[in-house]
What does this fold into?
Amino acid sequence: MKRHSAVPGPWAASGSARVCIGDNELVYIAKAFVQQPQFLSAIARVPLPPQVVSVLPTLGNDWGGEPAVFFKVIIADNAVPRPDLLAFTKGITQAIIQQIRPLEEWGYFRILIS
It folds into this structure.
């Protein structure tokens, strides 16, 4: 029978928790998985332009199995001219990264916006 126990350590300050499974196996869990309500609250407090109708985050893993957060950003119809859309979405990405500090505070390496 395998045991599961959280192991405290310096990595907890970096946004990750280390969990022992069995005798020798270690699994790192991003803090955002463990503290989802606080993570979602932090995202809700990010100041965004008025053209953004909503932001829908989903916690998961990227193609390499690393922790990631995927954002679906809903923008009001015709609020941003098509030629400016790339710069606008990059600005949203930067605002989210600067406000929530995903790697330092929550243990995430990737933010993907669609």
User: Anything to note?
Assistant: The chain is about 30% helix and 35% strand.
